[in-house]
Specification:
mainly alpha, about 70% helix, globular
Amino acid sequence: MLAVHDRLFQERYEQKPPKYGAKEAAIAKKLIKDYGFAKASELVHALFDSRDTWIQSKGYAFSVLANTATQTQLIAAMSGRSPQQDGLDGLREFVRG
């Protein structure tokens, strides 16, 4: 997961991201546990596709993926659904499915 983020960050900024630590490793582990590797990887891609100003202001940092609201927003964008229609559980089920 961190390797995916690293590659996408370098493609965008033409430099390495700040060093990853235990916090980022724990986030990656949880994302993989919750969504599986393939869908978690899609979530990282969705992070870099996001036009959300908060995500942009954080420099597309991997750590923003620890935020449940950010996950919900990105999952909604990936699914074409809205959190208001399906709720968080519905969106997570989409990702797992």
